[in-house]
């Protein structure tokens, strides 16, 4: 076969135009629709960011209130879906539970049967409603499963809390403090979108066949589950707990690097400078560490960062968002295996936003393989093989 350009891993390949988010890897900058992530994280809510990503502008008060009211009304999940989740073994990975739950929800969406078909991408209002339903119900699936496996009564969603605060409330059965609510909201904003990452791209591949938003989001959840994508924050936290104290950090890092092992929560395919999301979370991790008595963990992280930047900063290796998000969730008392589902609860904004945008000028995503198998084989009947 003649030589064709091969793009294994699609490294550096541009597959579509998008106006949702832009990463300047060299400068360590991230923007959503032109707004600096720092401004959005500090000044906006997750709901405002969701609106921004899907509709291309920040909402006014009425637009925001209307969307929040719709979302709050849609938080509860059908009894049948609760039952399906309750039947899963308690040690099912929460990402598998989330995938199953979202898949099951599709059967209960009043809009889906009306629009299913070759023009599904043209039903804009219905698709926005479907997207908001999925986004609103995902935290409920995660919180319900968490309480079921703990043997605790379910805490039903409240309509008067924000998306982030309600999620913590359903998990804990108590309202989060202002700082806890703010940090969760901020974590959701920071993870809401990040260019053509693997899970977003997979959502788009599914949507490009004119399949529906439920199927797309299930594709996204499936892709995010892998430790090369959503799972690094768990690994970074485990490492910090293993190090145990700041005075052991240098020796641990140096030994790992001597053995050519990677330090989790450092380095990024696109960022070759400090990940802006890590910088924001670091500030809040410090506050939270003081409030929750986790100063040893935070100081250990600072020391790991200091040693890493000293040794590898020159190669463009700095902390990424996962280095600080794992700590933050841990300090909030969230079990480690829920870190990736929280990522999904946030990233669904980007997944759906990109699908809605891509559907405007949908093209089937269908690349090709360079065939390396044999040609011209003679068929041998089964009896004589
Ligand atoms: N610790 C130690 N060395 C590292 C690290 C690290 N975390 N990251 C990269 N390097 C080194 C590599 O060993 C390699 O060294 P060499 O040139 O001597 O061979 C060099 O830096 C380049 O590494 P690549 O893997 O080619 O760089 P790439 O940019 O493709 O890697 C990646 C990005 C995969 C994220 C990498 O930095 C890594 O494995 N980090 C740890 C896992 C992690 O934190 N992932 C989360 C990413 S953020 C997110 O997904 C939300």
Structure description:
This protein has 385 residues and is mainly alpha-helical. It folds into two domains: 21-227 and 337-359, Citrate Synthase, domain 1; 232-331, Cytochrome P450-Terp, domain 2 (Cytochrome p450-Terp, domain 2), CATH 1.10.230.10. Helix content is 56%, strand content 3%. It has 17 helices and three strands. The protein has helices at residues 37-43, 46-55, 61-73, 79-87, 94-105, 112-115, 124-149, 163-172, 178-190, 198-207, 213-224, 232-243, 249-258, 276-292, 295-312, 321-331, 339-359, and strands at 21-24, 29-32, 35-36. The chain has a three-stranded antiparallel beta sheet. Strand 1 (21-24) and strand 2 (29-32) form a beta hairpin. Helix 2 (46-55) runs parallel beside helix 17, helix 13 (249-258) packs across helix 15 (295-312) and helix 14 (276-292) packs parallel to helix 16. The longest helix has 26 residues, at 124-149. The radius of gyration is 22 Å and the shape is globular. The protein starts with 20 loop residues before the first strand and ends in a 26-residue tail after the last helix. The mean pLDDT is 96. Acetyl coenzyme *A binds at residues 229, 232, 262-269, 312, 315, 317, 320-322.
């Amino acid at each position: 076969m003649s030589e064709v350009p091969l793009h294994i891993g699609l490294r550096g390949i541009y597959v579509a135009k998008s106006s949702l988010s832009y990463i300047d890897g060299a400068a360590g900058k991230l923007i959503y629709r032109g707004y600096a992530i720092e401004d959005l994280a500090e000044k906006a809510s997750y709901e405002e960011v969701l609106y921004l990503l899907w509709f291309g502008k920040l909402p006014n008060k009425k637009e925001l209130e209307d969307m929040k009211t719709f979302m709050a009304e849609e938080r509860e999940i059908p009894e049948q879906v609760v039952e399906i989740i309750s039947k899963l073994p308690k040690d099912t990975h929460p990402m598998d539970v989330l995938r199953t739950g979202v898949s099951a929800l599709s059967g209960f969406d009043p809009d889906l049967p009306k629009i299913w078909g070759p023009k599904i991408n043209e039903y804009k209002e219905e698709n926005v409603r479907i997207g908001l339903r999925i986004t609103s119900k995902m935290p409920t699936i995660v919180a319900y499963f968490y309480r079921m496996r703990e043997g605790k009564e379910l805490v039903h969603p409240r309509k008067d809390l924000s998306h982030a605060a309600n999620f913590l409330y359903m998990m804990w059965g108590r309202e989060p403090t202002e700082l806890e609510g703010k940090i969760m909201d901020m974590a959701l904003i920071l993870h809401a979108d990040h260019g053509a990452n693997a899970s977003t791209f997979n959502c788009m591949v599914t949507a490009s066949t004119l399949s529906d938003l439920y199927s797309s989001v299930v594709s996204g959840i499936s892709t995010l589950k892998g430790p090369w994508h959503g799972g690094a924050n768990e690994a970074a936290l485990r490492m910090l707990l293993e190090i145990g104290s700041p005075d052991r950090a240098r020796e641990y890092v140096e030994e790992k690097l001597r053995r050519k092992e990677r330090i989790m929560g450092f380095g990024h395919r696109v960022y070759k400078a400090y990940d802006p999301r890590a910088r924001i979370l670091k500030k809040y991790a410090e506050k939270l560490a003081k409030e929750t008595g986790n100063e040893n963990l935070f100081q250990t992280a600072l020391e790991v960062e200091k040693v890493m930047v000293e040794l590898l900063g020159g190669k463009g290796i700095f902390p990424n968002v996962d280095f600080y998000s794992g700590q933050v969730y841990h300090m909030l008392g969230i079990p480690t295996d829920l870190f990736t589902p929280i990522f999904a609860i946030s990233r669904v904004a980007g997944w759906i936003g990109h699908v809605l945008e891509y559907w405007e000028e949908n093209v089937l995503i269908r690349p090709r393989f360079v065939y390396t198998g044999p040609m011209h084989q003679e068929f041998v009947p089964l009896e004589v093989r």
